[in-house]
């Protein structure tokens, strides 16, 4: 399948032919250009949001996103632990598993489309807002750790703050 990108809004269409009109911004097919596939073996790809009103399907997707994200966190923690114990084979195995779990979660997130906007710029703004909320929670965790005299652990949490 070929990939075509709208120059106006950033929408990516996957298919054999350019759409007649961009479904997002309404411009005609002249605004589309074919994207080069720089790495055909790349694991992650862009997928369009599914069009479904099936509540059971949507709820299962949401649940699976959470489960695969949680498992990816666990696998990454196992990777760090295996690296610390100098078990490189085990470390690489769980690191690869963590990436596969995150890929599953991101694919389902694209299918769901609830947290994604149509342009990269808008998505970055959404990500910044959600990172701000995450950082606020991390700061609260750090403060509560300090109240429990867990200073070393609080310093580790402080290092996990993410800025974009």
From TrEMBL:
In the Enzyme Commission scheme, what number(s) does this protein have? Answer: 1.11.1.1
Entries under Pfam families matching the protein: RUBY_RBDX (PF21349)
Per its UniProt entry, what is the enzyme's top EC class, as one word? oxidoreductase
Q: Which of UniProt's keywords are assigned here? A: Oxidoreductase, Peroxidase
Q: Where is the Rubredoxin-like domain?
A: 1-35
Q: List the GO molecular function terms.
A: iron ion binding; NADH peroxidase activity
Q: What cofactor does this protein call for?
A: Fe(3+)
Q: Which domain of life is it from?
A: Bacteria
Q: What is this protein called?
A: NADH peroxidase
